[in-house]
Specification:
alpha+beta, 26 strands, globular, 11 helices, 2 domains, C8orf32 fold, 14-stranded antiparallel beta sheet
């Protein structure tokens, strides 16, 4: 997959970055976006709630128009006719090129705040065109009640937080309400509905500057915001309006007239492909053979620059780190060790890994019918998910239940569905994110790790890749983190900074590169390779490589 991102107006800034993370962290997913509570193809109807005082902004990536956002603040009256706070409203529409395909995503966020702009409730929705995923929340002191609505079904949970949360949508308003003072520094807790994660954000107020927007000079304070390792710069007026926002990843939002903001580029004018632009092309040491077929790689050594390699997530399951050098060995050589004492954690349902859903359980049982043994069942699930989910770049929040309904998605969707189905069968599974090698470059990608119980209190974690139809996954899968979107967010700061140098590659003697044009319909073997180290199961003709214009 490709790399990950961030930037838009407070509320779309963080979302856009994360969506890119979703895009780049998934088999060629897409930018981070959010959509309407109830998607509608009639844009005029969708935006009917915005009056003449609404603020419009154009969204740009490296100088090219991606879309727009519109927001407004509406007073909310109490029973006595007095102001009881405000409703913050924001909609957006983004269109972009992802691996040659054009995608359109809509976004809607509504938040209720009191007169001090403390968050009381919110509704956030994202629709990539296959139907909206909605996250709603109610705040009661430090308790956050969350409802996640996918496919007409609602899942609820309660989060107990260390402090009252905010959304990026009301953060800037809260900042303005406290008074913008040069040199002031604030630290608050921000909840991101896209990742269901609460994390600290640091805000620093700089000097007042003159910024041109909507063809006029506007005085605004320069505000630096750091969230999950990513820093953005905004220019904010005394009243809390964001005039301009920039991120080091090349995203910019600028205040514009409504007519100019809504003037989206036509598909033919969208030249920047966000996912291809995020590829990490490695340097290769002299005398190192080229990687013609990633499946033939038995050992890979790389020097990594621009990333923190101290996390425990980088160790184990065929991967080790020594200083700035990472070595990955063929997962076929992994052997069972002492049983993992924490596997119970990876059997539990989660907000977007709905392993207790009746439809998920039924589909999983059907996928492994007549298959015996954890290893054979895990492979059967790999083949099932690969053949069931249509490979398509998607800008969405990957919910296993929604993936099973739509059967469309990239690596994020394949991984979420596999993990949920595996857990429903009593086979521990978890999400891994990092990069995988395709056509001369590494792309950000997501894949599952599944636990194989060998009996006798012994077992092993095995990387698999339902998107590439690999069991186990090849040795070019470089893991950076484990977990859902709340964990994957740590990868965002790596965008544009990560550098890789291939130091050494061991390949299967006599291996033959995969040829473009070979049949993609040949049946793949059900059981794993155990004795023939030179053979490889045939991969699906669709996946990241196909999005790139060929077979992997």
């Amino acid at each position: 997959m490709p790399s990950w991102i961030r930037p838009l107006p407070g509320s779309l800034t963080r979302p856009l970055s994360l969506l890119i993370l979703i895009a780049w962290a998934g088999v060629m997913a897409v930018l981070i976006e959010r959509s309407y509570l109830q998607a509608s193809s009639n844009l005029a109807t969708d935006l009917a709630r915005y009056g003449s005082a609404a603020k419009w902004r154009g969204v740009y990536y490296r100088g090219e128009k991606l879309g727009f956002t519109v927001s407004q603040t509406v007073p909310v009256e109490g029973g006595d006719g007095e102001s009881n706070g405000f409703e913050l409203q924001e909609d957006g529409q983004l269109q972009m090129s992802l691996l040659g395909a054009h995608t359109l995503t809509k976004i809607r966020t509504t938040a209720r705040v009191n007169r001090s702009f403390d968050l009381q409730s919110f509704v956030f929705a994202l629709d990539p065109g296959t139907g909206p995923i909605t996250v709603a929340g109610d705040v009661h002191d430090r308790e956050l009640r969350i409802s996640i609505i996918t496919g007409g079904r609602t899942r609820t949970e309660v989060r107990h937080l260390t402090e009252r949360p905010m959304l990026t949508l009301n953060l800037i308003r809260r900042l303005a309400d406290t008074g913008l003072t040069t040199g002031a520094r604030h630290q608050w807790s921000v909840f991101d509905p896209a990742t269901l994660r609460n994390a600290p954000v640091t805000v620093t107020v700089g000097e007042r500057e003159i910024v041109r927007a909507a063809n006029m000079p506007i005085p605004a304070f320069r505000v630096e915001m750091e969230y999950s390792g990513l820093r953005t710069t905004s220019w904010v007026t005394d009243t809390g309006e964001i005039v301009r926002e920039e991120s080091p990843l090349g995203f910019i939002t600028v205040r514009e007239t409504s007519e100019r903001a809504r003037a989206l580029a036509v598909p033919g004018q969208i030249r920047q492909d966000l996912l291809k632009a995020a590829a990490v092309v490695p340097n290769v040491s002299p005398r190192v053979p080229p990687i013609s077929d990633p499946r033939a790689v038995r050992r890979l050594r790389m020097r990594i620059e621009g990333a923190d390699l101290t996390s425990a997530d980088l160790i184990g399951v065929g991967q080790r780190v020594e200083g700035d050098v990472v070595e990955i060995v063929d997962a076929q050589t992994l052997v069972a060790g002492a049983a993992d004492q924490n596997i119970a954690t990876y059997l539990q349902p989660e907000a977007l890994i709905e392993s207790d859903d009746p439809d998920i359980r039924a589909a999983a049982a059907d996928a492994v019918r007549s298959v015996v043994g954890a290893r054979a069942r895990a492979e059967a699930l790999t083949r099932y998910v690969n053949s069931t989910v249509q490979k398509k770049p998607t800008v969405s929040i990957p919910s296993a239940r929604e993936v099973l309904r739509t059967r469309i998605g990239d690596c994020n969707e394949h991984t979420a569905l596999f993990v949920a189905m595996s857990r429903s069968l009593g086979i521990p599974a978890r999400i891994a994110v990092g990069l995988a090698f395709v056509h001369g470059a590494f792309y950000y990608h997501a894949w599952p790790e599944v636990y194989i119980d060998e009996g006798g209190n012994r077992g092993l974690w095995l990387p698999v890749d339902p998107t590439f139809n690999q069991f186990p996954a090849d040795s070019t899968h470089f893991r950076l983190a484990r977990g859902g979107l709340e964990k994957q967010a740590v990868i965002i700061p790596l965008i544009g900074r990560l550098k890789m140098t291939i130091l050494d590659v061991d390949v299967v003697p006599g291996s033959v590169p995969v040829l473009v044009g070979q049949t993609a319909n040949a049946p793949a073997p059900l059981l794993p390779r155990e004795t023939d180290s030179t053979s490889s199961p045939r991969e699906s003709g669709w996946c990241l490589p196909c999005f790139l214009g060929g077979h992997r």
